[in-house]
């Protein structure tokens, strides 16, 4: 389980934006692909992200809890602290995403830069684990038992809704239009994306009950994030493998011009998830 803010999850969001290029053919209504890649944990991460245009705003999931002004100040302080502590992981995730774009433009999913960036993202993600777990415990301390339960109910409900979504061809058509794919290419994309989704779900399944156990226990006063097996979930390794497998599956379908277009598509996704500069009012 991970109930952190945008600072500790931005690098996952970037990787998820990259993975969009591969799972679009699998689910037209899919949210951030990182959600599919790490079950309830990534669901919590995605739900916890706050609107970037308002630095004083809390994530939607926390705003819904109607925090007091004292709680709001504590939550904003937690957000800022997490942002600083996981900055190396965020940077490593962005470098991984840029390496994916480079590999796509070259139509070569096995370039050394991609493997190196993936390995470094995993290392930095593991080093950020302690900060994330500390953040979960601080969040638990800030919220009342009623607020904790309301947050858990929302996350579990969102997870159930996500799992009930049926694959469609809408995502494939959208990506197909972006890259100029033929009908035959789109059919292959759907087929391979479905197989990829099935594979990642199989890898996540052993963690689902562990994640659910941690979520269900979150409202209790004696909750401690490190006491649950879910705290060891290799989220970063799962996400980076998912993205690399998707790239290796998709690139053989494309011609050189389409590979370049995919690289630009991914590059744009990375830029849209890049942290704001100090001049824009963000840290």
Written account of the structure:
- The chain is mainly α and 283 residues long.
- The protein has one domain (6-271).
- It is built from eleven helices and no strands.
- Helix 1 (6-23) runs parallel beside helix 10 (235-250).
- The radius of gyration is 19 Å and the shape is elongated.
What would the keywords be for this entry?
mainly alpha, disordered C terminus, 283 residues, disordered N terminus, single chain
Layout: helices, strands, pairs:
Blueprint: H1 6-23, H2 33-47, H3 60-63, H4 69-85, H5 87-106, H6 112-142, H7 145-164, H8 170-179, H9 183-217, H10 235-250, H11 256-272
Largest sheet: none
Approximate shape: elongated
Decide which structural class fits the backbone: mainly alpha
Write down the domain tally: 1
Overall strand count: 0
* Portion in beta strands: under 5%
**Number of helical segments?**
11
Order of helices and strands: HHHHHHHHHHH
| Poorly predicted segments | 1-52, 277-283
Distance between the termini: 26 Å
Rg measurement, Å: 19 Å
| Oligomer status | single chain
Helix content: over 70%
- Average pLDDT metric: 78
Short description, anyone?
With 283 residues, the protein is mostly helical.
């Amino acid at each position: 389980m991970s109930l952190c803010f945008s600072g500790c999850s931005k690098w996952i969001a970037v990787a998820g934006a990259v993975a969009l290029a591969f799972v679009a053919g699998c689910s037209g209504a899919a949210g951030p692909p990182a959600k599919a890649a790490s079950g309830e944990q990534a669901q919590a991460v995605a739900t916890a992200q706050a609107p970037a245009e308002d630095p004083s705003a809390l994530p939607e999931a926390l705003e819904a809890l109607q925090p007091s002004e004292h709680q709001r100040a504590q939550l904003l302080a937690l957000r800022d602290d997490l942002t600083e502590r996981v900055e190396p992981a965020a940077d490593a995730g962005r470098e991984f995403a840029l390496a994916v774009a480079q590999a796509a433009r070259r139509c070569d999913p096995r370039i050394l830069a991609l493997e190196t960036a993936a390995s470094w993202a995993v290392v930095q993600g593991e080093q950020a684990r302690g900060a994330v777990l500390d953040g979960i415990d601080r969040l638990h301390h800030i919220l009342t038992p009623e607020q904790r339960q309301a947050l858990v109910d929302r996350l579990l409900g969102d997870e159930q809704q996500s799992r009930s979504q049926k694959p469609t061809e809408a995502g494939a058509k959208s990506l197909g239009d972006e890259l100029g794919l033929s009908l035959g290419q789109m059919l292959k994309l759907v087929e391979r994306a479905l197989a990829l989704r099935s594979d990642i779900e199989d890898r996540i399944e052993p963690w689902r009950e562990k994640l659910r156990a941690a979520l269900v226990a979150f409202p209790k006063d004696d909750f401690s994030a490190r006491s649950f097996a879910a705290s060891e979930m290799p989220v970063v390794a799962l996400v980076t493998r998912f993205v690399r497998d998707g790239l290796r599956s998709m690139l053989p379908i494309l011609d050189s011009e389409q590979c370049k277009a995919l690289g630009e598509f991914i590059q744009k996704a990375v830029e849209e998830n890049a942290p704001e500069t100090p001049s824009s009012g963000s840290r």
